[in-house]
Write a structure and sequence with these properties.
Radius of gyration: 24 Å
Distance between the termini: 79 Å
CATH superfamily of the largest domain: Spore Coat Polysaccharide Biosynthesis Protein SpsA, Chain A
CATH topology of the largest domain: Spore Coat Polysaccharide Biosynthesis Protein SpsA, Chain A
Number of helices: 13
Structural class: alpha/beta
Shape: elongated
Length: 389
Amino acid sequence: MPEPPRTAIIINNFNYARFLGQAIDSALGQTWANSEVIVVDDGSTDDSREVLKQYGNDIITVLKPNGGQGSAYNAGWEASHSKLVCFLDADDTLFPDAMETAVSLFEDPAVVKVQWPLHVVDQRGNWHGALSTKVTPPDGDLRGRVVSDGPLYDFHYTTGPAYRADFLDQVFPMPEAPYRNGGDVYLITLAPVYGQIRNSTQALGTYRAHGRNNYRERILDNARIENYMQRFEDNAHALATHLARQGLEADSGRWKLRNFNYLWLERLLLAKTDIAAVVPPGASYILVNDDEWGDPQPVEGRHAIPFLEREGAYWGPPADDAGAIDELERLRREGARFIIFWWTCFWWLDNYARLSRYLHSHFPCAFRNDRLIAFDIACRENGDRASTV
């Protein structure tokens, strides 16, 4: 019988002393015994290093100056001597059977990455039923897809990962400057180039939402949008570089035209400019975007109203056309001057056919392109000004 593969759990930490012990305990508590736990402290200034001292020789401790997540991944990988590696953020945890389950999914030697959903917990570790994956992540042989469309990642399927060391040997050390945050996305981007991806159907850990996460529940303002666009550029460069090593010339310019991760961000920036040009300063407008922009007031000086809304918060799509028209008229009477549909919500105008006919027959289309469709609901088509408050 072949020797069971040795696994490593590499925990990267920066100023998460209040969570670090739980992450380490979860790593040490694995049912898969042939394992090492490596904790990289990336120059913490809180009590993290005092926490690490409590574990003595139970863990391998790597202390380094602050350099960002990419540098912490590099340091952890350099300290590892295992065949399979799981990277774990210090504010997250693993379930006891996580590595045992992951090992079983690596049975096929073509698999270079195993991934699993996570329970989204609050800062106290309580789970209220949410998963980190809003859709099932793609798996299998994805190489052709990334060659055609570019980097494959999405915040809708945040997962826990484990990787085969043979793959990591090909891609480490990762570039540190562009990956001060998001070192995991570098590995997500490159894994399909080197082998297959395998999903676990069961959650194998937790993702802690505590208000200071790098990405989750952060306002998606212009600076963050531009940061994400640069992140795509960095990931595209890494992907093109590794494809070139295999003799494939990638068309990264084409990726920008067809990759949702870039296209969505680019259109969002332009859509904000469109709204600022159409909606006068101080005016209110109904924004139909299924609450996906990550910013309740995306355009300065203009007041966005979600649709449907209750007490100013997004309430989900209407049950039927009658409800949609009633809500439109209520908000119009209360002062909304435009209703604006975002690109990914153009389907509303097909699904709510009566609403669509009502808009087209009663109000002029103020703006239309591949990003937005706007109707001026303060102005009737027959020339009568609608009442406003």
